[in-house]
TrEMBL record:
Keywords: Membrane, Transmembrane, Transmembrane helix
Any Gene Ontology biological process: protein targeting to mitochondrion
Any one of the GO CC terms: mitochondrial outer membrane
Composition-biased stretches (Basic and acidic residues): 36-74
Disordered: annotated segments: 1-86
Lineage per the UniProt record: Eukaryota, Fungi, Dikarya, Ascomycota, Pezizomycotina
Transmembrane segments: 95-115, 127-150
Residue span(s) of domain Mitochondrial outer membrane protein OM14 C-terminal: 92-153
Stored InterPro entries: OM14 (IPR039454), OM14_C (IPR039453)
One GO MF term: nascent polypeptide-associated complex binding
Protein name in the entry: Mitochondrial outer membrane protein OM14 C-terminal domain-containing protein
Length: 157
């Protein structure tokens, strides 16, 4: 005779983790699912995390820009203070006084000339260009004449 076939012992403990077969296997989605911007919870979480990261980055960049602006302001203020101090030191230098007088005279003459052209209706782009060229030529000439005169009358440091 053959030996007896072993039997499987049935227990109810093993069926508790099984999927409920009575529930529908296909889940339905709304008809506008394809047109929805966010389709899944994972996608929603990813978009939220990206927005938070972008906000942190924007705040960091803003803080860096604010610090950079503050540093630039301090540097400009210091440079302006040095320039004002240097100007006060050299206020009795004849080259500086001459530059102020000549610059004021040229600016006045050009302003009156432009005003006369404007009131006569003769002011155009061409005339404006000519006046701008005169300003440029004056600036170049003033620079070289001042450099020459500063050798004779050196500025105070």
């Amino acid at each position: 005779r053959a030996p007896a076939v072993p039997e499987v012992v049935h227990t109810d403990d093993s069926v508790s983790s099984l999927v409920d077969v009575d529930s529908p296997h296909i889940s339905s989605v709304p008809s506008d699912f394809e047109s929805q911007e966010i389709k899944t919870e994972t996608q929603k979480d990813r978009i939220e995390h990206e927005a938070e990261a972008a906000e942190r980055k924007t705040k960091e960049e803003a803080a860096k820009a604010a610090q950079k602006a503050k540093d630039a302001k301090a540097a400009a203020k210091a440079k302006g203070g040095r320039a004002a101090h240097k100007f006060r030191q050299n206020s009795d230098n004849p080259v500086v006084i001459g530059n102020l007088v000549v610059s004021a005279a040229v600016a006045t003459a050009l302003g009156v000339g432009i005003y006369k052209k404007y009131t006569a209706g003769e002011f155009s782009w061409k005339v404006g260009g000519i006046f701008a060229g005169v300003v440029g030529l004056f600036g170049v000439a003033d620079y070289y004449v001042s450099q020459y005169l500063f050798q004779k009358y050196p500025p105070k440091k």
